[in-house]
């Protein structure tokens, strides 16, 4: 039996390390996914995207349809080699790779729950947790999800737990400030809002 395990991280570096630990533990990169907020264009400034002769990021131009999202993932390069840019309703611009991001783009076309929440619930994540994961990405975080054998869940859970967000505590904190659930129709956080959120919970991106 296959189950989906997910964790939210306050910065991309911690999520990146979690992905690398999963791969080292034997999880195929085709079964791992990462979705990171890119409202402050950190992916662009790190020059991790391909640009054409005019300096335009072609993948960003096609973000709405998921262009460039992990299309090159394969071989032995690992999941992170397939990072691409896209936009997900309610989240805005994200950097992502893997099955969850591809599912979210498809779910966004017709799912009433919204792309990312629809993709997570379809994968077996509870609606409550899916809302919190989505809101976490909206506020500047990074989500890592993996499809794993149920027998391996405990071992791989411990790998993902390192440096991850306590989902219940984070949700409670937002609820005290008036948050109820993720709204795919809500306005994505801007760069300044993301910066403040990261300072509040997780410090810098790296």
From TrEMBL:
Residues 8-41 form the General stress protein 17M-like domain. It comes from the Bacteria. InterPro entries: GSP17M-like_dom (IPR025889), Low_temp-induced_all0457 (IPR052948). It holds the Pfam family YflT. PANTHER family: MEMBRANE PROTEIN, MEMBRANE PROTEIN-RELATED. This is General stress protein 17M-like domain-containing protein. It comes from Bradyrhizobium niftali.
């Amino acid at each position: 039996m296959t189950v989906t395990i997910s964790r939210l991280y306050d910065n991309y570096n911690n999520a990146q390390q979690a992905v690398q630990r999963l791969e080292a533990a034997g999880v195929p990169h085709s079964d791992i996914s990462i979705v990171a907020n890119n409202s402050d264009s950190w992916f662009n400034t790190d020059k991790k995207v391909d640009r054409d002769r005019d300096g335009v990021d072609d993948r960003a131009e096609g973000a709405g349809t998921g262009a460039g999202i992990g299309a090159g993932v394969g071989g032995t390069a690992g999941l992170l080699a397939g990072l691409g840019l896209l936009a997900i309703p309610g989240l805005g611009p994200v950097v992502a790779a893997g099955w969850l991001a591809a599912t979210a783009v498809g779910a966004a076309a017709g799912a009433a729950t919204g792309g990312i929440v629809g993709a997570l619930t379809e994968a077996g994540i509870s609606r409550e947790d899916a809302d919190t994961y989505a809101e976490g990405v909206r506020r500047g975080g990074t989500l890592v999800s993996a499809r794993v054998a149920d027998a391996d869940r405990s071992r791989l859970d411990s790998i993902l737990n390192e440096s991850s967000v306590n989902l219940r505590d984070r949700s409670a904190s937002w609820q005290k400030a008036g948050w109820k659930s993720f709204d795919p129709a809500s306005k994505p956080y801007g760069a300044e809002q993301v910066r403040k959120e990261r300072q509040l919970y997780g410090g810098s991106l790296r």
